[in-house]
């Protein structure tokens, strides 16, 4: 399975970006976005079931980030609003294929995209 992340860039604090993650298959149990800032560990951002029934957001992004999916394009979007400098990181999308796995830990995902840089200036 291939995951292609895109949409990162430089934005001022308070601005918005939309990240995309195109997948090569729709036979996925769950999708997630994680991020990693310089000198920090990779952290969970959002995860959701491919059917869209379950969605989980990190507390730090609740109310600002929204995940969605375009079925026809096998693409997942992460809409990021009210961005803060602390949102600066490389963002990775990930896909998990096994049912019953975790959404919020990286071990629940089997394939990862290459990452896209998001930089929020103050």
The structure class reads mainly beta
What value does the average pLDDT take?
94
Shape: globular
- Strand portion, in percent? over 45%
Integer-rounded radius of gyration: 13 Å
What can be said about the biggest beta sheet?
7 strands, mixed
How many DSSP-defined strands?
Answer: 11
Total of helices:
0
Give the terminus-to-terminus CA distance: 37 Å
Order of helices and strands: EEEEEEEEEEE
> Fraction of residues in helices?
under 10%
Segments where pLDDT lies below 50 for 5+ residues? none
Could you describe the 3D structure shown?
This protein is mostly beta strands and 122 residues long. 0% of the residues lie in helices and 49% in strands. The protein has strands spanning 3-6, 9-12, 17-23, 30-36, 43-49, 55-57, 65-70, 75-80, 89-96, 111-112, 116-121. The chain is globular.
Topology:
Layout: E1 3-6, E2 9-12, E3 17-23, E4 30-36, E5 43-49, E6 55-57, E7 65-70, E8 75-80, E9 89-96, E10 111-112, E11 116-121
Parallel strand pairs: 2-11
Antiparallel strand pairs: 1-3, 3-8, 4-5, 4-9, 5-6, 7-8, 9-10, 9-11
Task: Supply database-style keywords.
globular; mainly beta
Brief account:
The protein contains no helices and eleven strands.
């Amino acid at each position: 399975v291939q995951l292609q992340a895109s949409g990162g860039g430089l934005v001022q604090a308070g601005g918005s970006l939309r990240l995309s993650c195109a997948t090569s298959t729709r036979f996925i149990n769950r999708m997630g976005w994680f991020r990693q800032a310089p000198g920090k560990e990779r952290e969970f951002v959002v995860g959701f079931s491919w059917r869209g029934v379950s969605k989980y957001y990190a507390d730090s992004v609740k109310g600002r980030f929204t995940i969605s999916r375009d079925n026809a394009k096998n693409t997942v979007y992460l809409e990021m609003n009210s961005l803060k400098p602390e949102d600066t990181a490389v963002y990775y999308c990930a896909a998990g294929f096994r049912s019953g796995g975790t959404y919020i830990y990286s071990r629940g995902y089997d394939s990862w995209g290459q990452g896209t840089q998001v930089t929020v200036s103050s």
